[in-house]
Automatic annotation (TrEMBL):
Keywords, in A-Z order: DNA damage, DNA repair, DNA replication, Hydrolase, Magnesium, Metal-binding, Mutator protein
Protein name as it appears in the record: 8-oxo-dGTP diphosphatase
GO terms for MF: 8-oxo-7,8-dihydrodeoxyguanosine triphosphate pyrophosphatase activity; 8-oxo-7,8-dihydroguanosine triphosphate pyrophosphatase activity; 8-oxo-dGDP phosphatase activity; 8-oxo-GDP phosphatase activity; metal ion binding
Gene Ontology BP term (one): DNA repair
EC number: 3.6.1.55
Entries under Pfam families matching the protein: NUDIX_4
Origin species: Corallococcus terminator
Cofactor(s), by name: Mg(2+)
Listed Gene3D superfamilies: Nucleoside Triphosphate Pyrophosphohydrolase
Reaction catalyzed: 8-oxo-dGTP + H2O = 8-oxo-dGMP + diphosphate + H(+); 8-oxo-GTP + H2O = 8-oxo-GMP + diphosphate + H(+)
Nudix hydrolase domain segment(s): 4-132
Amino acid sequence: MTRRHVRVVGAMLQNEMGRYLITQRPPKASLPLLWEFPGGRVEEGEDDATALARELQEEMGVRIVVLEQVMHTHHEYPTYDIDFRVFRCQLSESGAEIHHLRVHDHRWVALEEMGQYRFPDADAKTLARLLDLDH
């Protein structure tokens, strides 16, 4: 059986207080109610920046500016592999309202508070690298 490979992009969005945006997965999604960096799958024919902007618009009704890629990790789940790329982003409008269109909840969290939230393995790897980069 061939393993499925999924390319996923995530946004590292910081507010003016230096807190990072994390979102909670819906109860009926795969990996239900875990927290993650907002983002999603790259569709066929999309580049990473276009996919990331589309995902945040669909999930939370916000427009973003995608800046540089800050990390890349690979994670193997039992039935599929994730190629996960994280980009530094900013909201197009400062203080834009976040809507829960396809997310269960959201939080703006300081790095030292991230350990209080349960993340999927791929996001946890990214978080560990982010914490290492910050120190």
